[in-house]
Amino acid sequence: MLDTSYRAPASAPSGPTGRVCDFVASIELNDVPQQVRTNAKHLILDGIACALVGAQLPWSRTATKAILEMEGPGNCTVIGWNQRLNPMSATILNSTFVQGFELDDIHPDAPWHANSVILPSLFAAAEHSSRGMQGPKHFDGASFLLSTMVGFEIGSRVGLALYGSEMLSRGWHSGAVFGPPAAAAAVSKLLGLSPEQIEDAFGTACTQACGLTASRFESMAKRMQHGFAARNGLFAALMSRESYTGIDKVFERPHGGFLSTFGNGSNHEEHYLPAKLTDGLGGEWKGISGMRVKPYASQISTHAPINCIEVLQQQYPERFADLESIQKITIKTAEAPYAHGGHQVRRPLNALGAQMSTQYTAAAQLLDGSVLMDQFKSANLDRDDLWHLVEKTECVWDREFDELSAWHTRVTVDFGKGYTVSHEVSGPRTYDDPLSNEGIRSKWSMLADSVLSEGRKAQIEEIVLNMEKLDDISQLIRLLETEVKNPID
């Protein structure tokens, strides 16, 4: 049973915002089922792998060098760089690294990349508080794990309250919208804030929420947008700790509130669903149970087409051995994946544009049988044989698919002379057949091997998967600070 007997309650304890604040303040580790904790630790391991792999990528170097030039030294670790910055800048960069190669987690029903928001904000909060004006404070692994799970849960529930992937169709980069209150929740939990302070943190975090999906076309800023969310949530919680007030009842305000504003333009009769924030809260862990780990280095809208092509390659190996015979590839999807990845691309294309493109990733799967880091190396982005396949690929929004599922996809390959093959799925295998915890450990091992020594890799894995036993989270952070190499050099 959750204890809500606090002296500093939220302004309306029985409302959606108040109930979420009480949950954040009162939840304890023993309230969380063991399997949920185990899954969360594997998700954290995957997020760390993505950060380490992303730290020294070319676009990450550009971001890091620019911010190092703008900002003076601080007390918070920049992962994989042997550098320290102030908490806000370290959070932005570490989030950018997690998002650096499109390999991180995704929630199918409330699309956001939770690790890229929650881990950087918590790492910075822990380091800043351990050396800050408040006096030294150390956070153990159990507190860090619980705070992470709280952030995962609140961000996912916020997304569900706004109909999840519909936000993408309307042009919002959904994770950058759902992320600020999630980071505020996680940091508030780590710092032990009261419901009243948490409400202020939510109010300050939510007023900073934003993110445009047009960033996916060519900008490096796409990789940083979850970082803005992480920074803004961290900022909000740290300000609230110092009694800086935010918007009260921010989730349910009918005019200018978080849900009412971002719900504008919804296709549903009810523009937003505040009950999604609180139904089953504390008993149903919709964040962790819903999160999936990517097996491909590309944005989620490309995964179902890749899966369809994989199946066709397995079913018709002789046909697909002769790629020159392909006349046309037609990829039909529902609205959200079409809006997010179905745009026409032109040569030349940078790595980000390629990772966001259904056309490019489908061609990479056809040519290489893989969509991982190698497919986005500079030397591989401009191959003639790949672009011949891109030019034969058409993406189509089939409105009938919208009635079937948000991610429904059919790929048809025309070999000419009346011979076509097709495969149809209701959604990507990333969602329907997710990686198990063992699968996540295998992915961790593959990614870590590309940037870490065996000894350092083993230490990180041991700490994360036994996090409840960790005396001080700084022991993990120290293992992340040493400079890593660029895995695609």
From TrEMBL:
Classification via Gene3D superfamilies: 2-methylcitrate dehydratase PrpD
Residue span(s) of domain MmgE/PrpD N-terminal: 20-267
Pfam families the record matches: MmgE_PrpD_C (PF19305), MmgE_PrpD_N (PF03972)
InterPro entries listed in its UniProt record: MmgE/PrpD_sf (IPR036148), MmgE/PrpD_sf_1 (IPR042183), MmgE/PrpD_sf_2 (IPR042188), MmgE_PrpD (IPR005656), MmgE_PrpD_C (IPR045337), MmgE_PrpD_N (IPR045336)
GO MF, one example: lyase activity
Domain MmgE/PrpD C-terminal, residue spans: 296-468
The family this protein is said to belong to: Belongs to the PrpD family.
The protein's name: MmgE/PrpD family protein
